[in-house]
Design a protein that fits this description.
NADH Oxidase, 6 helices
Length: 185
Amino acid sequence: MELREVLKARRSIRQYTGEAIPEDTIRDILSYAPWVPNHHVSEPWRFVVAQGPSLEELADLRHQAVLRRRAGEDSAQARADKARQEFLDASAVIAVIQRLDENSSRRQEDYASVAMATYNIILAAWDAGIGAFWNTGPLMQDADVRAWLDLREDEQPAAFLRLGYPKAVPVQRRTPIDERVQWRR
């Protein structure tokens, strides 16, 4: 696929076929992450790939995190079950980890680089026929998840990417760009 086609065709995929993604394919997809702008080529990221039993562990941690966060709510169990199943339905989940610089300006630049690296992974996956869904939220601050990821004090999760071969590709529209651009001449 040509780059411009990939950019317009890519969709967030929530439903997967269940077919396993070979490790070599994931390794190839990850090889595109570093090719983004990053201040002084600091490469402020690392990745944790969960598949098989490790993916089940991470899904269970997500389940427990949702139960803790939603304690007392009528929908807590249903939400926790859904969150667990979303991870289990994926063939792999990639945790994207950002190294935190002491300098707040540099940390912000690094987050932008990590986000671009994450998007490169998503685009490379799409080009390989694999869908992805970018998860963020409270899970990223959960102490048990942080321990499972073996995070250092100077690291934080930036994203959890669910990967799998798409069961269906949603149709989406975008606002015409001219409605979002202001020209000043």
